Amino acid sequence: MNIGFIGTGVMGKPMAKNILKSGYPLTLYARNQDKVKELINDGAQLVNSPSEVAKKCEVIVLSLPFDPEVKEIITGKNGLLSGAGNDCLIIDTTTGTPQNSIDMASLAASQGVEYIDAPVSGGVQGAIEGTLTFIVGGNEKAIVKATPVLNTMGSNIYRVGDVGTGRTLKALNQIISAMNTLTICETVVLGNKLGVTAEKFYEVLSHCAANSYHLQTKMPNFIIPGKFDIGHRIEMMIKDLEIALQIARDNNVPMYLSSLGTQMYRAGSASGYAKKDISSMVKYLGSIIGV
Rounded distance, CA 85 to CA 89, Å? Predict the structure, then answer.
């Protein structure tokens, strides 16, 4: 299969690289062509529009930041649907609203194009190592077609229902991820205030009931070294939480802790940490009490 890829950011670039490593021909569209020089050097082909990607490729992977970008790439002037033939498949790994994916699937289907939503979990390291988890919504036939491509980028593929369900479950994942990280940040700050180093905090709690995926990733990779320039940015987590809260509002479900957590992340963003990993909340919370 000829594979297309659009969205070569922090997550998308290593994902595209793993597709190339697996031997698939890869066609790219990128507004910032400097971002894809490495991929071109590795054998990818760069074209001038999403439409050209669609004309060349049977499967197209999207890894974009927001719903409006997804809509523009798929339906805009020189978008994918202006070039895609019948049986083309769009795999959208964007973390966005379920309704956007449902709308995109409907528009794609009207032109004989398949669309599945397949948001990912596993972070930047998972994207680099090709161990991402894909949470997929769509019909089974389309997912079967997508599976060989998804296998180049991830180690877990879960079909969770119809289009839109993938994004719904990803929103639930983001709530837990956001709140777990905030809990770690708060307790690290309290420990610091009481003379417990981050290193000792991590060493001991790794063997206690407080152990978790986020303790094992956020502590050694971000908080202990004090490096927050890669990872899942606070501004993106705010977007993710707003999606989750909108789903809750639409279904009349109160979300007390998630609402408070969102406001805490907003405070961190407003204090200068918007483009830092979510674990940089430890810096914001520490600054409040002078540690």
Answer: 9
